Inverse folding.
């Protein structure tokens, strides 16, 4: 009948298991998968992220130089970050905040010239990628 | 004597997902149960026509939120078999480690829901409190809490370092200790026993005949577990299925509770076994397999079957998924006749129905 009594007594001493969110938040774990960031000055607008994305949350327009990310469609798998050849994409450790309206992230890069150029070498301070 | 037909579900406080049962009742006893499905069909199998093989890994993970890792594990194993490759040994053990973590969190989720369904709110909160720590382990090692997204064709995408593994091992010990403290309240409490012992009995012969799988079959005395086929790294981990013989709701409760403990032990042993080396094969992209294959793995609810067919294109021709709840529904329809109407929620939940899986 009183099987749970020891657990209840321990819980009285331990304090609550829940946090007073949003006043108190937990630090994210290192390399947790959160929001996607694009350093647009490094981005070559090659469109590989958009082609690899399983959720189709990315749109890249090389002619107009637009890079668009929909955080409400994104499944935060990190495949785009892993495949970015220019190392311009990175993933933050904090997730998307709750929002009252649905907005996409639109970045304006340098429009790509016809014919394109040579792929730039990865910079020496390339951000950490999804690599074991 | 007049019959009454009572609808149970698709929306019901004990059902985490929508299933409709049309119950024919006579004097508060069920004499027939007829199911109706199709409330959460998403057409995920058809997405194979528009997603390439690498993208399908993320799609199949979303068949079921609770055992996403195991779906992706099964799919990747199938594609690897078609390509004639094998994931590196370290990746195989890591896949087992995350799969077993998923089994624990799935069983803890179910144990909490089952306690809630019996009206045992405090026990429900205890189980979910422990489950949160398992989700923390997933997030720290894989990056995400529930849909971990670590599988890839030819290996895994994350490689936990030694410090993380040591912390994980210590945390598993503490979780096991806390879980064992809940054992008397879960299995021996007189109110739990009164609601579950002798309720929804499935005999061994019925379980065999109806093709029941997973804990539902093991609670009826069938020692069947796909992990015994030694896929991935299970061959290198000593493993014994948890079997009970009573076949009632309490036996299914005991099987899941003991399986959660056994899975914690498997995680610990997988960490100890973890060989050094690569975790991911470098593939000539994109993979374009040819041929067809059938893969089976053990999900928290039982046997999961994937049929894959490819014709040398970057997209597969067909993916067919047979989930364990689909196999356990006929058993549920045999368990329900004779059960009192007030026990229908308990018996229905005792097979751990996962309707999103079933309807995909």
């Amino acid at each position: 009948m009183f099987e749970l009594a020891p657990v209840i007594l321990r819980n009285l001493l331990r304090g609550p298991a829940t946090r007073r969110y949003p006043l108190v938040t937990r630090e994210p774990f290192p390399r947790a998968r959160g929001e996607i960031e694009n350093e647009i000055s490094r981005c070559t607008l090659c469109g590989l992220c958009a082609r690899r994305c399983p959720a189709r949350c990315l749109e890249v327009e090389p002619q107009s130089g637009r890079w668009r990310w929909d955080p409400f469609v994104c499944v935060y798998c990190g495949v785009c970050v892993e495949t970015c050849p220019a190392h311009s994409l990175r993933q933050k450790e904090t997730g998307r905040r709750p929002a009252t309206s649905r907005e996409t992230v639109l970045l304006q890069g340098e429009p790509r010239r016809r014919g394109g150029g040579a792929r730039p070498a990865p910079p020496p301070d390339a951000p950490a990628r999804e690599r074991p | 004597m007049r019959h009454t037909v009572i609808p149970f579900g698709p929306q019901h406080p004990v059902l985490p997902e929508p299933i409709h049962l049309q119950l024919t009742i006579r004097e508060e006893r069920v004499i027939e149960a007829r199911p109706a499905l199709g409330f959460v069909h998403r057409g995920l199998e058809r997405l194979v026509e528009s997603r390439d093989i690498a993208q399908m890994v993320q799609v199949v993970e979303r068949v079921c939120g609770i055992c996403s890792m195991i779906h992706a594990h099964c799919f990747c194993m199938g594609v690897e078999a078609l390509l004639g490759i094998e994931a590196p040994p370290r990746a195989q053990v890591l896949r087992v480690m995350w799969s077993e973590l998923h089994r624990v969190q799935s069983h803890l989720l179910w144990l909490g829901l089952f306690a809630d369904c019996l009206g045992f709110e405090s026990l429900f909160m205890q189980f979910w409190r422990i489950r949160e720590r398992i989700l923390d382990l997933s997030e720290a090692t894989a990056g995400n809490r529930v849909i971990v997204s670590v599988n890839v064709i030819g290996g895994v995408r994350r490689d936990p370092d030694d410090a993380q593994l040591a912390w994980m091992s210590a945390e598993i010990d503490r979780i096991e200790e806390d879980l064992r403290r809940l054992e008397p309240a879960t299995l021996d409490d007189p109110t739990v026993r009164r609601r579950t012992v002798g309720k929804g009995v499935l005999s061994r012969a019925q379980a065999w005949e109806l093709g029941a799988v997973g804990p539902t079959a093991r609670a009826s005395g069938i020692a069947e577990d796909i992990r015994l086929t030694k896929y991935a790294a299970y061959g290198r981990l000593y493993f014994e299925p948890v079997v009970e013989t009573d076949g009632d709701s309490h036996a299914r409760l005991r099987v899941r509770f003991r399986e959660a403990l056994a899975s914690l032990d498997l995680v610990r042993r997988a960490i100890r076994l973890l060989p050094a080396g690569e975790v991911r094969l470098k593939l000539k992209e994109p993979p374009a397999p040819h041929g067809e294959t059938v893969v089976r793995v053990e999900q928290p609810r039982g046997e999961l079957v994937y049929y894959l067919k490819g014709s040398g294109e970057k997209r597969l021709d067909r993916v067919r998924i047979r989930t364990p709840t689909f196999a356990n529904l006929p058993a549920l329809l045999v368990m329900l006749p004779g059960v009192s109407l007030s026990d229908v929620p308990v018996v229905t939940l005792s097979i751990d129905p996962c309707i999103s899986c079933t309807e995909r």
